[in-house]
Design brief:
Elements: E1 4-7, E2 20-24, H1 29-34, H2 45-52, H3 61-70, E3 73-77, E4 79-84, E5 93-97, H4 100-105, E6 111-115, H5 117-131, E7 135-138, H6 150-157
Parallel strand pairs: 2-3, 2-6, 6-7
Antiparallel strand pairs: 1-4, 4-5
Helix pairs in contact: 2-6
């Protein structure tokens, strides 16, 4: 596969009541095709978050948006554009970041959670000083993170509930 230059084609999900922001690195090929977050059917994000929130698993993009906003969760990615091979975070180069600091300024978001090591590393490198908000690293929900089983994921991600109260 060749490295290609790709732009993030869909914006952040948030509203005035958002309390936390979950940032991924960059959308997978499947997510880019669907024009929404965590579109790969093996990604555990939607199962995990609905489980934590004690909600039914959302199936449509509208249901996913509704569940997150109803629970004061904003969603975005660190990267606006990059060169990448397929969906491989390890292949990401030539990074241009999203204006996360601008989003923070116009919302009530107080905590930022990073979905995986790559998102965390990119946030620390490019955005931490701009936002003034410490990023909290969580294990990736990606199917590529097979070393982290669902029970361990759930235990780690449970921390987001504290900030939603």
């Amino acid at each position: 596969m060749n490295r290609i230059k790709v732009n993030h084609e869909f914006g952040p999900l948030y509203d005035n009541d958002s309390k936390i922001l979950i940032l991924g690195s960059f959308p997978s090929v499947k997510s880019r095709q669907q024009a929404f977050y965590y579109g790969h059917k093996q990604n555990r994000f939607w199962k995990l978050v609905s489980d934590l929130l004690n909600e039914e698993m959302p199936m449509t993009i509208e249901e996913k948006k509704s569940m997150l906003l109803r629970n004061h969760i904003a969603l975005w990615d660190v990267i606006e554009s990059c060169t990448i091979i397929g969906s491989s975070d390890s292949s990401i180069e030539d990074v241009k970041v999203n204006d996360v600091a601008g989003l923070i300024r116009k919302t009530n978001i107080k905590k930022i959670y990073l979905n995986g090591n790559k998102a965390y590393d990119l946030y620390q490198k490019y955005l931490r000083n701009e936002t003034g908000v410490e990023g909290i690293k969580l294990p990736s929900t990606s199917p590529a993170n097979a070393a982290c089983n669902y029970a361990k994921l759930r235990e780690s991600w449970n921390t987001i509930l504290e900030d939603l109260k």
